[in-house]
Write a structure and sequence with these properties.
binds phosphoric acid mono(formamide)ester, 2 domains, 9 strands, about 15% strand, Rossmann fold, alpha/beta, binds norvaline, about 300 residues, 5-stranded parallel sheet
């Protein structure tokens, strides 16, 4: 079973990852050790940089008795245009699962088509599904039932936004996204999600309107990996979407702020807000470890 986007799963499956991760976190705190992935090897193929996702997947594997082989994009024959379907079939003979971070979603989809071991999407230009699972785990820890939350997304309609949209439709929470014109989320994902959603998924322009009733505010970089050339132009366009003290004042005092990190302080979020009492970014980063354990267990053992 692959994890190429959250669309691969129904509500019960998505909830199961999070329930398991919460148990694994509790057990880790109590010093309970697991060896369930002993003898398993995962290949990590990363064509973009990563601090959290790479290290938390590696720590999750080692922490459960497994091992990893890390390959940066330039170290594989992919860099010399070896067909993905060949790599998928060969790697499947060596490892028990593939975790991939790359540019095009079609790369992950093609690997999944030909691999005979599970393929897990560790971020593409279109999706960041594992991140959203650990973010939702964080929201549940801090705020309770996910179905009762109103989540706001402020800024770029990027990979994170697309995965939040899929999660909202499957898990049944309300989602309001405030994006500048021209930077909306993927229209096909939005339309498909809206068609099956139980609660509203809305895209608007005004960040104040988006945070007014929000329980959770989500913010991410203005220029994602691969968009470095656009960074300067985006700073000018996204400036009104900065998550700062003035915007937080428009929300409820108990509203929490999520940032998947890495953050560009004083661009998309002020240092004051990121380091302030409403920020849960550090627990959010920790939860990647626990959710990755739950994902690896589920995909490598079933
Ligand atoms: N949040 C996240 O995916 O961080 P990295 O790019 O460091 O993996
Ligand atoms: N949208 C960001 C997320 C980083 C974890 C990017 O793709 O660079």
């Amino acid at each position: 079973m692959h994890l190429t986007s959250l669309w691969n799963f129904n509500k019960a499956h998505l909830a199961a990852y999070i329930e398991r991760a919460i148990i694994l976190k509790r057990e880790a705190t109590a010093g309970v050790r697991h060896d369930t992935l002993a003898g398993k090897i995962v290949g990590l193929v990363f064509e973009k940089p990563s601090t959290r996702t790479r290290v938390s997947f590696e720590a999750a594997m080692y922490g459960m008795g497994g091992q990893v082989i890390y390959l940066s994009g330039r170290d594989t024959q992919l860099a010399r245009n070896e067909p993905l379907k060949d790599m998928a079939r060969v790697m499947s003979r060596y490892v028990n699962g593939l975790v991939i971070r790359t540019f095009g979603q079609e790369v992950v989809d093609e690997l999944a088509r030909y691999a005979t071991v599970p393929v897990i999407n560790a971020l593409t230009d279109l999706h960041h599904p594992c991140q959203i699972l650990s973010d939702i785990m964080t929201v549940i820890e801090k705020k309770g039932k996910i179905e009762e939350q109103h989540i706001a997304w402020i800024g770029d309609g990027n990979n994170m936004a697309n995965s939040w949209i899929q999660a909202a439709s499957r898990l049944g929470f309300a989602l309001t996204l405030a994006c500048p014109e021209g930077y909306d989320p993927d229209p096909a994902i939005l339309a498909a999600a809206q068609a099956e959603a139980e609660r509203p998924i809305v895209v608007l322009r005004d960040p104040i309107a988006a945070v007014k009733d929000a329980d959770v505010i989500n913010v991410d970089v203005w220029a994602s990996m691969g968009q470095e050339d656009e960074a300067a132009a985006r700073i000018a366009i996204f400036r009104p979407y900065q998550v700062n003290a003035a915007l937080l004042k428009q929300a409820k005092p108990e509203t929490i702020v999520l940032h998947c990190l890495p953050a560009h302080r004083d661009e998309e979020i002020t240092d004051e807000v990121l380091e302030g009492p409403q920020s849960v970014a550090w627990d959010q980063a920790e939860n990647k470890l626990h959710i990755h354990k739950a994902i690896l267990e589920k995909h490598l053992l079933s």
